[in-house]
Amino acid sequence: MIKTTQIDLTETTLDRDQVLTDYRIAYQSRQASLIGRREVLSGKAKFGIFGDGKEIAQVAMAKVFRHGDFRAGYYRDQTLMFVLDMATIHEFFAQLYAHADVLADPNSAGRQMNAHFATRLLNEDGMWKSQVDMYNTSADLSPTGSQMPRLIGLAYASRLFRQLDALKEFTEFSYNGDEVAFGTIGNASCAEGLFWEALNAAGVLRGPLVLSIWDDGYGISVPNQYQITKANISELLQGFQREPGSNEGFDIYVVKAWDYPALIATYQQAVGVARQEHIPAIIHVIETTQPQGHSTSGSHERYKPAEHLAWEREYDCLVKMREWIVNQDMASPEEMDRIEEESKELVESIRAEAWLAFSEPIRQELNSVTKILDDACASTADQTQIRQIQKGLARVPVPYRRHVLAAIREALIHLRDDKTDCKHQLINMKQRLEKEGRQRYNTHLYSESSQSALLVPEVKPVYGNDSRLVNGYEVLNACFDAMLERDLRVIAFGEDIGRLGDVNQGFAGLQAKYGELRVSDTGIREATIIGQAIGMALRGLRPLAELQYLDYLLYALQIMSDDLATLHWRTRGGQKAPVIIRTRGHRLEGIWHSGSPMSSIVNLVRGINVLVPRNMTQAAGFYNTLLLSDEPGLVVEVLNGYRLKERLPKNIGEMTTPLGMPEILRSGDDLTLVTYGALCRIALEAAAALSKVGIDVEVIDVQSLLPFDINGSILESLKKTGHILFVDEDVPGGATAYMMQEVIEKRGGFWWLDSEPRTLTAQNHRPAFGSDGDYWSKPNTEQIFEVAYEIMNEVDPARYPIFYRSDE
Ligand SMILES: Cc1ncc(C[n+]2csc(CCOP(=O)(O)OP(=O)(O)O)c2C)c(N)n1
Known about the structure:
Helix content: 40-55%
Radius of gyration: 30 Å
Number of strands: 22
Largest sheet: 7 strands, mixed
Strand order of the largest sheet: 11-10-12-13-15-14-20
Strand content: 5-15%
Shape: globular
Bound molecules: thiamine diphosphate
């Protein structure tokens, strides 16, 4: 017998009209699923995944979902969205068709597959709407379990809003921390590590979180016995169950997906307690069905036994609710039939409208190009090829803009020697379509608001005669102190940053000064540290989340990449999470404290700013810049810089380091050396040695990998020197290759090269332990000297003969 929180059904009163309205919307939602599948199978949409079988539970959930609340769920939640009008059925079909217009598909403007929901939290100008006046849904993503990390931040924000008086003024985000964060997840996704990490964190953080597990017994074709120990997730979660009277742990409920009154009572109780007392709850919704199988990719008849399929038909939540309504004498079978017929007609007509709205503009573009091609035929000698293109276009069963553009491109090849007006019209149309396509699909990777990080003006550090020389960590400490002081929304957390003040003392004394809620220790849980930050940032807070070492960022990289980096883009500017992530890396000793996997990061987190300051003053400037912006950013501090001496700027709280602006650390005429982070110091040492043999090196610190050198200043240096060397501590082909592409290909540096562009990197393997291990693993002063010298030897062998190597 498993222990769960019990509900009292006697208190539930159900009004007939409300019950019938619930049934109607649930039935409409089912129709949307059925018709949606048909649309995919008939070729009008690419892929479909639906919420059939979960309708009644979501109708019950919707009853307790209030303005200000948030959902972090997955692709089965269309009914909840429909009931609360967070998404309409029209929008649902628009997204199914990938209608790339934010008015048609406000979730994602055609960027996400269907049933990946998101409400628009931002106005057109990128500023927050008032969340307490809306139902809110954070943007869904497909990797299973990835909604969990951010869910804990959404819930924890309520605790902060309730307990921190300083946050009371942010009335557009919270009313006394009363907002509940509703999570949803499939049974099989509970096998993911993210699920367990998030649940544990939620229990520790104690916010108003209500997690529903839709359990249909399968994860695609794999039954629970292969997913979950003892094949029962609520049984497995028993250790999380809170004891009566205690406020630690979760309330755990088990309820059947087809039992309408029990679902209503369960949600009322669970959400009531969560909202009032901030006790999290788990609702294990069992006996859920999936009438159409997992998605349009396959058919469940292939893997579900016949008895199970028969059971699913009998226990379908709509069938059961209808039976219950009729048995309660709330409506006759004929009345129920009528509701169903009306629902079918309604949903079909909405679908037809959505299809027309999606396809008609494309049809018009296709007609325009056909017309221009007609004109082209009239004016060209050889019409056959153009007619073929026209015919091909007319035969496409479901035309997209890509077909139109491909036809134009093909026609232009045939008309390449043509001088007619048609050709110009085609070129114009091609350019217009290309531009519109870019606006549809390529915008909003970073903020386009007035708070874009690129718009934050530079404020240089100011020093006085009395400016003290301090340890690097003290510069950061002063910066974080100033941030916490001036912006009450700043909440810092991470492993060991609270009581200890972080492993390098950047937060020393700040918990004592600002309290445990503003500067907190977390468990060892990198993915959910980032998730916590995302959820909090979505609710208007300014989380400063620390990952203890760069090497452990890999645990969080999936969430950074899948959720944080794509958030603004995948909602086409509908949501933002200006999270500031702090970590330290590059250089210490041993495999896991000296990694610098910058290329892996840079290539996976497009959408997040990646900043690699060489010292703590530059780092402080980046923190200040990020806090003034509404974009996420990662700052990688130099691990061996905390005890190096720096002068403490007088304006540590105001100075900013601009993004995408390299800094020339040493000017020189012979060779451009491009690097960042810990290697800046080593490169300067090498440059000093090289100057002794007559080689004048310009050393450039890129400072910011994403964005990269937005004004092309490295190219200007290359124009002067004609020779370039990229140096870093990543693997060969890593971030040096990235930088080389930026300068040589994108900026056209190729045209200014007088010799082969070179890279110098760490070895392919991880850095070995100890000083010699480091010397043989990472670039050092002597190696930089030799590679730079080799470049100059190639240019002028007589002047720079190789003196340190024999040819044998
Ligand atoms: C990380 C990850 N692994 C695998 C998949 C492929 N996949 C998509 S849905 C799914 C099954 C999920 O089952 P469950 O959590 O029970 O949810 P359901 O779809 O049944 O509602 C799988 C394996 C994925 N999307 N993400």
